[in-house]
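Continuing the batch. This is chain 6 of the set; chains 1 through 5 are on the previous pages. Same settings as before, nothing changed between runs. Recording input and output for traceability.
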Amino acid sequence: MISDSHPVRHYLGRWRPKTSDRTAPLHTTDQLSSAEVKAIHHAENELLDANTNSAYFVLRDQRRALDLVLADVVKEWSNQDAEYMALRRRVSTALENFLSSLRAFDDKTCASLSAKYGKESKPYRVFKAALSLEYDNQAAYRIAYKLRNFMQHAGTVMRLEINEKLDDSGERSVTASAILPPQELLAWNGWGSTVKRDLSAMSGVIDAQILCDRVTDSCGRAYANAVLAQEAALKAAADLLVSYEARGPQPIDGRLTILTLPEQVDGLKGSSWTDVMVGLATGLDRFLAECRRATEKYGPVEVD
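Output for chain 6:
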């Protein structure tokens, strides 16, 4: 590791990822200033924060985790090597994790947008308006937003339904689902009048997977609006990374990287390597197009 207490030199380079040893295929071009390196990392962070580092992607991962747990339930029940209450606790925990990520999605996205642009900025106000739109129009979002508090204060009334049947050939099949009974949920007095009406109007049970799918869709629409409100800043970050791709060793054959060397050392001894995330930039237009498609249900959210 290079100590921050010593001067360093930065070079733009390119290497071919054929082996774990980067030194042999490395080719460098011009030297970069510390300000340029800082600008590159800032651009990468702008794009990462809007994409895979966002709280929305964590929410999506937790949604998939619920499916994986239910798939494990089916497998273990089919093999007759699991106890019902233990399986129920695992599914309940997966549901709670999803609901926690829902609250974190709201809190962390607001905090990120506020820190970057301020609470009076367009991205922040668009995101808050988009969340309000989902709350007003989607009962699943309203219920899920309150359900986390219910599970924390009143425990869980989730039922794990495991169904077995034999087909005509005698083959045994197993399915599992997480079910929430609205009438039992109504025993808690913390729902608020709107969500209480939602639950009272239901004649059947709530399938947790369907509920979580609809909530993920709601959050996806809200987040897509927030991303589109940052389009100018994201495109500027992408353009900067692409400009360094053009400055790197040509032809473009391998990964763009920043080679950092201590000022007092010759050769590659003590060097460090950081790949430039050009793929974030080249994939931005596709990502923005996906965000536009996500907003089609209600149209783009506009703020004054």
